[in-house]
Amino acid sequence: MENKKSKYDVKTLAAMAMLTAMAYGVMAVCKIIPKVGGFLSMDAIDAVIGIGGFLFGPAAAVMMILVEALLEAVTLSTTGWYGFLMNVLSTVLLICPAVWFYRRRGGTAGAVSGLAVGVVCRLAGMIAFNYLITPLYFQMPRPAVVDLMPMIAVFNLVKGVLNAALLMVLYPPVSAALRRAGLAAPSARREGGFRYEPLVAAAVVLTASVLVVVLLLRVF
Q1: Alpha-carbon gap, residue 41 to 32, rounded angstroms
Q2: In 35-68, which positions are buried (b, 16+ CB within 10 angstroms) versus exposed (e)?
Q3: Cα–Cα distance between 112 and 149 in angstroms, integer?
């Protein structure tokens, strides 16, 4: 479990800024991936924002995604307020529950259980928000959006699982680097630190990848 007493000092804000810039860069690179259904974008932003959330708390994660989504909206996005809103909602739904669990339970078990809850929250929330918001933005009848729900559900499940797996892999080395640079507080190991096991990380990514392939083959 991370140090709950860390404050938003200059070093913390610098680390958050670095991670936000990294998330923006990841988003820019992922723009080359074709959109699913013409409006669903696959990216790994959540994994980067999650690192900041695990280190500095859910409020930090929310601030980071707000800044990244705003930068995206005014630079590379073609979906305006709709894209901004959906980016923020999807990340918050995945990362905030994961951070809440991790910072209270600590350890790999806390991270895994939190991310599992986050994937479920993201799936349910994005189905609801797409049902309510997508018809307004695209000016299409709601029954047409209902027909798209299997695709929307599978996409958000796949994206959530992939980002959760990437976060499991990236958090230990990135957080360790930030601590060595003095940009994050030392981990409170006595409270159950996040252990990095390369074989476990590889298994998580492999399992997520297989799940992605199976889901895509079954739906598309």
Answers
A1: 10
A2: ebeebbbebbbbbbbbbbbbbbbbebbbbbbbbb
A3: 27
Q: Do the domain assignments include residue 3?
A: no
Which residue is associated with the tokens 């940009």? 183
Within a domain: residue 102? yes
97 touches 104 (CB < 8 A): no
**Number of folded domains that form the chain:** 1
Check the CA dihedral 23-29-31-33 and report its sign.
negative
**Tokens read off for 72:** 């995206």
Query: Does residue 75 register a pLDDT over 80?
Result: yes
- Is it the case that residue 220 has pLDDT exceeding 60? no
Has residue 56 been placed in a domain? yes
Residue-wise pLDDT for 157-190, tens only, equals 889 988 998 898 899 889 999 999 988 887 654 3
Specify the CATH number for the domain of residue 166. Answer: 1.10.1760.20
- Say which residues have a Cβ less than 8 Å from residue 142's Cβ, sequence separation at least 6: 131, 135
